[in-house]
Design a protein that fits this description.
Elements: E1 4-7, H1 17-26, E2 31-37, H2 49-55, E3 62-68, H3 76-81, E4 86-90, H4 97-106, E5 110-115, E6 133-137, H5 151-165, E7 171-175, H6 183-189, E8 193-196, H7 198-201, H8 206-214, H9 218-221
Parallel strand pairs: 1-8, 2-3, 3-4, 4-5, 5-6, 6-7, 7-8
The structure holds D-xylitol-5-phosphate and zinc ion (ZN).
Length: 222
Amino acid sequence: MKHLIAPSILAADFANMGRDITMLHNSNADWIHVDVMDGRFVPNISFGFPVLKAIKPLTDKIMDCHLMIEEPEKYVEEFAKQGADVITIHYEASNHLHRAMQQIKATGVMAGVALNPHTPVSLLFDILEEIDLVCLMSVNPGFGGQKFIYSTINKTKELRAEIDRRNLKTKIEIDGGVSLQNAEVLLQAGADVLVAGSAVFKADSPEQMIDRLKNVGELKKI
Ligand code: DX5
Ligand code: ZN
């Protein structure tokens, strides 16, 4: 399957959120990545339910909610109710990940686990069957616009090999510092979903940048 592009609205213009969501709606973006930060799990606060609720009716794109929050289990049902289609919680924020995956899936949405750059992918192997999506953080979570951490490429390869060995459908998402400079190598390593905040919203034409990210690797296939 062709890879998916998930622009992160953390890099959107918050004073013109409706305009930016409409732009994404009309673009070739596949998912909309929604970064929720609580000022505890990460040293920054972004937004929460009211923003998700406000943007949900503006598009039928998949709402990919990345919860960078402590005690994420407390908020799963509410995120699902407000329109999340994917709910990703952090390995580092949950003591009962296996249970949390069941809890998320019981709400009818996809269940994801995000790993900070220092967390090895092998820590998920015992519950890989339960996980719909693994989000590999390629920056330290908390802020957009940071430099891509290259060790993510080897993590992607290791995880891809294990998913394929077991014939699973678990998707691999890469989040942080993704751009045209590293998209191709990430896809070759086995990524399925590329999150891009600054690369999209700081481009002269965000729609064109989405197209370019979407078409990475195309020429080679011809
Ligand atoms: C980082 C967030 C990312 C971020 C990506 O904490 O999880 O989704 O918005 O932004 P860029 O693409 O600018 O690194
Ligand atoms: Zn994110």
